[in-house]
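Our preliminary data section would be incomplete without showing what the modeling component actually yields. Below, a chain of 452 amino acids is followed by its predicted structure, encoded as tokens that our downstream tools consume directly.
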Amino acid sequence: MDIVICGAGKVGEVLSRDLSRENHGVVIIEKNEKRLNQVTELADVSGVVGSGSLLDIQRQAGVDLCDIFIAVTPDDETNIIAAITARKIGARHVIARVRNPEYSLQMDFLRESLGITMLINPDLEAAREIERMLTFPAALGVETFGHGRVVMVETEVHEDCPYLGKSLKEIGRQNGHILIAMVERGEQLFIPRGDYVPAVGDRMFVTGRPSEIREFCATDRDPERHPKTVLIIAGSRVTRYLLPRLSRNKMRAKVIEKDEDIADQLAAEFPDVEVIAADGTDQAVLREERLPNYDAVVALTGIDEENMLISLYAAQEGVKKTITKVNRTSLLKVIHNAGLQAIVTPNALVADQIIRFIRSMENTDGSNVEAFFRLAPGRAEALQFKVAVDSPVCNEPLHSLPLKKGLLVLCVLRGADIIFPEGGDTILPGDDVIVVTTHPNFQDISDILEKK
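Predicted structure:
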């Protein structure tokens, strides 16, 4: 597909790299020529220097002939104007990133009246991700499928794990339909067999119903209970989206914000939340605010290194759950074994959303991609497909299908039923099928089959 991306910031860089890797033709529009050159050197993409909201620049980039136009500059208004312009001159689908909380209240109106196919908000997505992480405190990451009916969590095996020394066959179905979908052990990433024995330090991606996952996590280390008190460092946009969610989950929050004006605005907007005007990166301030007494600490400053240090210090002081916002996806491999717990990356969340949409657009005649997540980080994918009527995977027992190596059919959603399939089960038209795989770029459920 021909794709034009307006904005070569962090999200634009991730998208250009991932989409070019999936063999799309990608053009980047960026005002800063130096930044544009950096991105075009990292990925196999071409670039146009200029403002993506200008008609002449869009025509120069081929927007009038493109399949998808994506506006991800730092400015909401520029993105909206660029998206409207792109739609008017012929782009088939347009996507705009908006971050202002005021726009989030009128997303449907903007889509319907302005013809924008998709509006995405990285800060809102980050707040949702943090909420899920707090709902499953023992998890390092949480992904949901089937509107939350099935959950996949990433959890690390500790020394006090009751499953140490036991194979999957021995563990059996102690916690219901729990399935260990994938294991990351050092540099190894594999789908475990029945003889797999968990080892300290393994990162397991576990799938099941939410209640069963909570039971599994509770036996893994500490009693699984929701945090009651949460300390948030920085009154960012993510914080504004997160606070109402914490309140709905009966979690009491305190915010430390360095900028007095922002702290005052936040206190006025959320009168039930205690807001402290102080430097949340200062250990003396954290000690004064009794950091170890909190169930969870969420570091949301605009500087990745500050967030990492805050979370490491909080863990050292005995805080059981830390969540760290990291904007630069290039840091994820570096910090993977740095001792950090849960990490949320808004740019990666947005990129996953867009890639899911693009894969569905590519495959309008086949099985749509309903959900898409990258795991471990980026070395595996979990996808949910809506199975088309004429799909070649239908009406055959799974053990008869020529499935590729390096993948696992995790779950089948059939109406109100949740099926964790065995070899004799079949996939039917209309099913939602959840698959985890180490193969990149699955666009249809038929991609799970070996090609003849």
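The chain has four domains: 2-120, 138-220, 229-344, 358-448. The chain is about 30% helix and 25% strand. Preliminary results of this kind motivate Aim 1 of the renewal.
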